[in-house]
Amino acid sequence: MEETTVQEKPTEVPREILGWNWGAFFLNWIWGLGNRTYIALLCLIPFVNIVMIFVLGAKGSEWAWKNRHWDGVEHFQRVQRAWGWWGFGLFLFGILISIIVAVAGR
Length: 106
Description:
By secondary structure, the chain is an all-alpha fold. The protein has three helices and no strands.
């Protein structure tokens, strides 16, 4: 009978992925669900959310790397860059809608 071993997830985080994660910052809890980083759900708690978005921005890449399977650093960076652009786009869209509503309300 052959002995099989269970391979653990790599805990080492590549240096290339460390740094600010704009997708985690802008899309916080949605990003957390997509990247299996469920601590991001703390963003749904009033007052905690203000601190948590900055924590996600700072630590999000590290947590996402550990919580999900990635084909490599390039794959990870490509996916996280897409999250960041979507988050930034939705942020700008929100500002635009706010301006339109403010101007239309006059």
